[in-house]
């Protein structure tokens, strides 16, 4: 067997130095690549892991007093806008509604009675006027005939007394008629202020009665149901919460030394800790006009001498893509890693925002028809009680 030639000490040292040199070159190259990548990302992207998913969390409260008799929505259940969630017994509301209906009918009858009395007074005043004219005519004839002895002075005196009596009665009727005219005004019975007040009370009572059925103001998923069958609730008592999961955004808290290049309209990439293999996309909608400490419940007082310089963070609102949300829904509160892509123009317009409050998530039409039907009821009561 042939023996493997051994390298001399000098050749072995050269070989080892060559390996170390190539290893060092490879390490420097990798480090330089990472440094270049970090420099490029730092120049063209702003990244923060102090970012969380946020959304519209709508609290549903009782709007009238009553006892919970039925619950039709449970936690994790998806509901549509206008869907019935909780039903109250509404006994008190129903009693109030019937009372308001009776008060409206009574108001109409009272005003109708005043109108009838006004017509009666008008007739009485006409009769008084005719009688007064007749007595005055007779008095004039008596005064012409008194010289001839056909009429006594006592008869003339009696006629004058009768005129004064009729004038007093006419004045009394006229004063009463004036008072009634002031009470009735010139409007129709159905438009009289007392009747209008009763109508408004009926509308309020009708609204209270309708609101015994608690409906979802927005579409979403039910969470934190607090209402239980048999609970006695008052207006303002929280019954449950609805989370609108179809319109979410990320609230990314960006360090103040990186905020200069961020402005509304920039694109963003979001990775959620719950789904690390999925990449979401978004767009910067706006920046809050202050750092987080400004909106704290107890803002820091730096004038006391205990000032410590820390990097403040500015909340940036990044709206998520609705198509991606539909494919993989998220929940408010999830942690994210958010990267915002910067552009060459780092100027920022103060107060500029892309938030559109005319969008569907900023309005509800669930309560638009709550008074539907009450006008027909009012018209029926008016027609049944006026003369």
SS element count, helices:
6
Rg is: 44 Å
Q: Look at the helices and sheets and give the structural class.
A: alpha+beta
Contiguous low-pLDDT stretches (5 residues minimum) are none
- First-residue to last-residue Cα separation: 136 Å
Shape: elongated
Please write the string of helix (H) and strand (E) elements: HEEEEHHHEEEEEEEHEH
> Which percent range fits the helix content?
40-55%
So, CATH architecture of the domain at 46-56 and 247-362? Beta Barrel
Under CATH at level 1, the class of the domain at 46-56 and 247-362 stands as: Mainly Beta
Structural notes for this entry:
The protein has 387 residues and is α+β, with helices and mostly antiparallel strands. The chain has helices spanning 9-44, 91-145, 153-184, 193-210, 322-327, 374-385, and strands at 45-61, 66-71, 78-79, 84-88, 213-215, 220-223, 232-233, 238-255, 267-272, 275-287, 313-320, 335-341. The strands form 2 sheets. Strands 1-8-11-10-9-12 form a 6-stranded antiparallel beta barrel. A 4-stranded antiparallel β-sheet has the order 5-4-2-7. The longest helix has 55 residues, at 91-145.
């Amino acid at each position: 067997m042939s023996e493997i030639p051994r390298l001399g000490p000098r050749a072995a040292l050269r070989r080892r130095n060559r390996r170390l040199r190539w290893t060092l070159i490879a390490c420097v190259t990798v480090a330089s690549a990472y440094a270049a990548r970090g420099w490029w990302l730092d120049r063209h992207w702003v990244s923060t892991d102090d970012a969380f998913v946020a959304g519209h969390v709508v609290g549903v409260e009782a709007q009238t007093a009553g006892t919970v008799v039925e619950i039709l929505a449970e936690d994790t259940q998806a509901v549509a806008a206008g869907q019935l969630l909780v039903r109250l017994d509404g006994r008190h509301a129903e009693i109030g509604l019937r009372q308001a209906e009776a008060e409206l009918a009574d108001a109409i009858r009272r005003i109708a009675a005043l109108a009838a009395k006004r017509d009666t007074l008008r007739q009485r005043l006409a009769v008084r006027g005719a009688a007064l004219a007749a007595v005055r005519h007779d008095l004039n004839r008596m005064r012409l005939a008194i010289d001839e002895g056909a009429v006594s002075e006592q008869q003339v005196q009696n006629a004058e007394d009768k005129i004064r009596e009729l004038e007093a009665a006419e004045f009394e009727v006229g004063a009463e008629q004036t008072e009634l005219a002031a009470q009735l005004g010139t409007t129709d019975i159905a438009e009289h202020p007392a009747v209008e007040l009763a109508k408004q009370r009926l509308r309020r009572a009708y609204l209270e009665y309708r609101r015994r059925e608690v409906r979802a103001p927005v579409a979403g998923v039910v969470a934190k149901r607090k209402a239980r069958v048999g609970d006695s609730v008052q207006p303002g008592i929280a019954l449950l919460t609805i989370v609108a999961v179809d319109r979410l955004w990320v609230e990314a808290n960006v360090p103040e030394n990186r905020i200069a290049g961020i402005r509304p309209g920039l694109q963003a990439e979001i990775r959620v800790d719950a789904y690390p293999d999925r990449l979401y996309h978004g767009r910067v909608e706006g920046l809050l006009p202050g750092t987080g400490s400004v909106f704290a419940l107890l803002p820091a007082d730096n004038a006391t001498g205990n000032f410590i310089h820390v990097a403040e963070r500015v909340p940036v609102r990044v709206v998520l893509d609705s198509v991606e949300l539909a494919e993989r829904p998220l929940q408010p509160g999830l942690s994210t890693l958010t990267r915002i892509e910067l552009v060459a123009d780092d100027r920022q317009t103060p107060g500029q925002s892309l938030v559109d409050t005319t969008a569907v998530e900023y309005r509800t039409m669930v309560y638009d028809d709550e008074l539907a039907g009450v006008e027909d009821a009012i018209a029926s009561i008016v027609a049944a009680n006026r003369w």
